[in-house]
Amino acid sequence: MAFGFRQASPCCFLLLFTLLPFSSTAQSYSNRTLGSSLVAQDDYSAWASSPSGDFTFGFQKIGNDGFLLAIWFGKIPEKTIVWSANRNDLVQKGSKVELTTDGRLVLWDQRGRQIWAAVSANPGVSHAAMLDTGNLVLASQDSRVLWQSFDYPTDTILPTQAMNLEKQVIARYTEMNYSSGRFKFMLQSDGNLLLYTTNFPFTDAVTAYWSTQDSIGSGFQVIFNQSGYIYLAARNGTLLNTVFPALSSSNAQDFYLRATVDYDGVLRQYAYPKSSVATSNGTRAEAWTTLSFQPSNICKRIVGRGYGGGACGYNSYCMLSDDEQRPICQCIPGYSFIDTNDIRKGCRPDFGFCDEASQKTNLFEFATMERADWFDSSYEDFEGVTEDWCRQACLSDCFCAVATFKEGECKKKRIPLSNGIVDPDVDGKALVKVRKDNANDESRWTLIRVGSVLLGGSTFLNLLLFLLTLMMFSRLKRKEASIGIHPQKLMPTIYVPSFTYSELEKATNGFEEELGRGAFGIVYKGDLPSEPRKSVAVKKLDNTERNGEQEFEAEVTAVGRTNHKNLVQLLGFCNEGQNRLLVYEYMRNGSLAKFLFKSSRPDWYERMKIVFGTAEGICYLHEECSSCIIHCDIKPENILLDDSLSARISDFGLAKLLKNDQTRTITAIRGTKGYVAPEWFRNMAITVKVDVYSFGILLLEVICCRKNFEKDVEEEDRMILADWAYDCYVGETLHLLVEEDEEAMTDMKKVKKFVMIAIWCIQEDPSLRPTMKKVIQMMEGAVAVPVPPNPTSFLTAI
């Protein structure tokens, strides 16, 4: 839809400066006096409207999830929300907003709990008012503004609104989820104006991908004036940088305007006609139209930043649409979205890379993607090679998920692939390794659609691309059939850095700060000179718990090959005389034990996220590594939490390795009392099922927020959690396990399912325990959970 907007010329800047946000006291109020309230009942419940009706404040229902206490455009059908009080904590029907008699604006949920309150309520407040600017204010009797919503933006700013130093606008999570998302627009305290990725689910800034580069460090205020002009001003009012240009003054008054950090990370300025616009067929049409946006190509701006999943998430790629220049997120061929309702969570492979079957190179083929790359995922780089050599090298390396090739240079990349992009400016091609049974027609058609976008809308070119693609796949199949693969010649050794004892002693300041003690030694915090901004955890192994020289280095090398989002990465080791140390990533949120066993009960949904992550990490060790790794000591103390409270399994540096032709092994007892599987004590060969047993105990602890053994309990039958949980399951009293957990009590169906899974995991008979892959399938609901038997039935039988 064309509105014929005209940008203001530079000579108009003086006029524009006269249109700064004006005092809200100059407007007439539609007041809500002390004691006024509104209860959430219908889809739209208005508590206050601006004098013109342009803006409304009240409750708006968000799907079936609950209500937002929000401000929205009152006269347009979309009811577009511009501000909300409880974006991260929706309330249910029966909740109430109230301007209390002591001048506080408060949101109560249906149970009477305070969910939100105006930050700086003042005893002088006499009324609340919704202004025609979209600003909600608390004012005194003489109309002095004591609090205003304009000072606390969510994802949108409006004309007459200003952003002062340290203010930020945070994108919503998805199109229909208004909670804080992955991107933000921020005027920093140092005067820099930037767009950032966030450390989701936290809102702290991670990577800047757009900024006002020619005014670094000198900004004081971001101003959105009534002409639609958004600019960065200095403290003296001087214009420093334009974010979005102005509309002509004659046009601006005819449209509603807003600037929003959208869930895809792009800051856009929108316009909506205040009156209906006639279309050519005589109907009336109204819609938000994009006027300007920053950055011009977010796919290109976020790549190569070295941290995070980029614009679209891990194992996916970003490309711009032809029509609206919006980022489109797609999975790599052979991969599927983790959550189709939230595609920026990324994608997961539909097949294994380092399981036993994946060692057979004839099971794989390549899907070729032109003009594609994942810049932050390379782990090996070769020059002066051919494309055929590059293909063979990737085929014979189970860690290689994608190889990129350009002008004789081959780069091998492993999952999770980050910051993916398909763009005409990207040189070379990506060779995506897929299982032959996963390289289906849908993946091939995805490639064709990618090429179609890149080459434009011409029907002839698209037809030509289609024919070329078919020829490419035919040629690829013939070529791969004729290639002789020699994996032993092309599989390079994974390099794990070695440190001297003195280097690590210096890095830890003489092993000064102890982080914890484990089964094999003490962990200290350190700082490596090569990583000045990144702390490490140095584990000093007990000399009495030493393996042979060759076994130690073999296990360190094997662990160094692991690469999974739910494992703590091994950064290096020391094997010098009697000193053996392991260097890991440092996790500042500590262990699951610290998180779980504290006075305040952690969030139920965060606990479930941690359980899923732990299960996926163990499954990776068991089924996706080149050598199966049995952790042997799964417990809350060995599950660390990263900055986003995701589970990261640690302390598997001296776990037991199984060779490719082994399924079980004999070894001395390892692990921690209470988590050790019974077969350790029966001289039975151990398998991966010992980790399944330990996970079952851990799962019960996470559900109930208590340790497996607690002697100081009122009722003796509750002393051992595993026994009590089974009794509660049989007696249909599972609510007793979570009786002090309101969130879990409202999710009893999941509580029951997870307790049943845990009971299966702690069966005395190892053969009855599921694999970790099966555990994940049951947790996700892909496989039904059968009725578990008594865990001790195996003991009774023998």
Can you tell me about this structure?
This protein is α+β, with helices and mostly antiparallel strands. The protein folds into four domains: 139 residues, Bulb-type lectin domain (Agglutinin, subunit A); 191 residues, no CATH class; 85 residues, Phosphorylase Kinase, domain 1 (2-Layer Sandwich); 206 residues, Transferase(Phosphotransferase), domain 1 (Orthogonal Bundle), CATH 1.10.510.10. It is built from 17 helices and 46 strands. The strands form 14 sheets. A five-stranded antiparallel beta sheet has the order 31-37-34-35-33, with helices on both faces. A hairpin with a 5-residue loop joins strand 44 and strand 45. Helix 5 crosses helix 6 and helix 11 packs antiparallel against helix 12. It is globular. It is a single-pass type I membrane protein. GO terms for molecular function: ATP binding; carbohydrate binding; protein serine/threonine kinase activity. InterPro entries: Bulb-type_lectin_dom, Bulb-type_lectin_dom_sf, G-type_lectin_kinases/EP1-like, Kinase-like_dom_sf, Prot_kinase_dom, Protein_kinase_ATP_BS, Ser/Thr_kinase_AS, SRK-like_kinase.
